[in-house]
Amino acid sequence: MPSRRRLLAAAPLALLAGCATRFAEPSPQHLPRLQVQNPGFTPVDGVPSIGVGALRPGDIVLSAANGLTSAGIRLLTVSPVSHASLYVGDAQVAEAVGEGIRRRSVEALLAEESTVAAFRHPGLRPEHIDKMRAFVGETVGTRYNVVGVMLQAPFSIERRLCELPLAPAPMRDLCVRGVGAVQLGLGSSDRFFCSQFVLEAYRRAGLPLTEADPRFLSPADLLHMREGDVPSVRSLQALQYVGHLKYQADPPPPDETAIA
């Protein structure tokens, strides 16, 4: 793992990087337009807030909280989200948290998180959902990927250098995956952290969201796979925005006693 001095030296460069871009396809009327990764997590105009009844099994739920842990994740990943979970139906999500893989109610999630939104893969079919539920059933109660999360901290800083503005998308994708292989190693894991769990559920269902190793990606990467955004790694399918289940426009300062 990189030394503390190395991390501190890389931090200023990380702040200058971390802004993935791409050129939109030109049209007969317009020249290629530069798109910049969207840092926002606010409700989309014209889409009302939604309730749990609007969710479908397989929806990806991204969220942020007011605690120090959430704030730290958002700072490291230069992102407005810090947690990812998978909606499995019956008003429940499956998620990887410190105590392990668990199910809990959407109501409990909304009580803990300050901002929550759902995203949907348009190609989901019943057979995919069945495989996701089987994966959740196999993994509930298993231990959390603590080592993977610890290694994410230095990796989150160093990978920002792959996302320099104007870096071509194939080069950015290759760079992130290469740095991940060096920092986190190659191979599979039978333990998961939150975004890794969601990505693995899709992979096990036969509907991978990306070819990148799930261990390399964070909730921020899932957010930037949404339609109209610029993903850091190559996305196989843009995710549709379903709506916000909860939105806090101006969160209070992090509570030092809170745990996200």
Automatic annotation (TrEMBL):
It comes from the Bacteria. The keyword Signal applies. Residues 1-24 form the signal peptide. GO terms for molecular function: hydrolase activity. Keywords: Hydrolase, Signal. This is Distant relative of cell wall-associated hydrolase.
